[in-house]
Design goal:
With about 150 residues, this protein is of the alpha+beta class. It has one domain: Gcn5-related N-acetyltransferase (GNAT) (Aminopeptidase, 3-Layer(aba) Sandwich), CATH 3.40.630.30. Helix content is about 35%, strand content about 25%. The chain has a five-stranded mixed sheet with strand order 1-2-3-4-5, sandwiched between helices. Strand 2 and strand 3 form a beta hairpin. The termini are far apart.
């Protein structure tokens, strides 16, 4: 694994967007383009508790992204960090890029005073689940959603 992880900067937007779109396609989701702008602006706003990190190869090419959101919890006195999105290019899977991105979010969470880092994936995402089962504990909770 030769990728370097760092926060995404405004100049990374053009490289971020194709990975974001690939992630959305994977989950069979379509968002309006104005939501891309809203999300990107939140990542760049220091007053927002949303963060975007990228994994870059030695040649500077962005090969993976991860988004994290800090929030309060009724269960902990500290912040909680939710790893909301993680995507690694097909060519980088199995090379440790996903694990390095998760560890970078764990470092961010520790630095931000979080008491917990958590994430979810779809039950059919067997590739990601092999990694997650190796590096974290399953909570046993099942997510439900109600449209508003």
């Amino acid at each position: 694994m030769t990728a370097t992880v760092r926060p995404l900067m405004p100049s990374d937007r053009a490289a971020w967007e194709p990975l974001w779109e690939a992630y959305l396609r994977f989950y069979e989701t379509v968002l309006p383009k104005d939501q891309y702008d809203i999300t990107w602006a939140r990542f760049q706003d220091p007053d927002e508790q949303m963060h975007a990190l990228g994994a870059f190869e030695d040649d500077g090419r962005l090969v993976g992204i991860v988004h994290a959101v800090f929030h309060r919890s009724c269960w902990l006195p500290q912040w909680t960090c939710y790893l909301q999105d993680l995507y690694v290019e097909d060519s980088q899977r199995g090379l440790g890029t996903g694990g390095v991105l998760i560890e970078a979010v764990a470092d961010l969470a520790r630095a931000g005073g979080a008491g917990r880092l958590y994430w979810m994936t779809h039950e059919t995402n067997a590739t990601a689940r092999r990694l997650y089962d190796r590096i974290a504990a399953r909570s046993g909770f099942i997510q439900y959603r109600k449209q508003l």
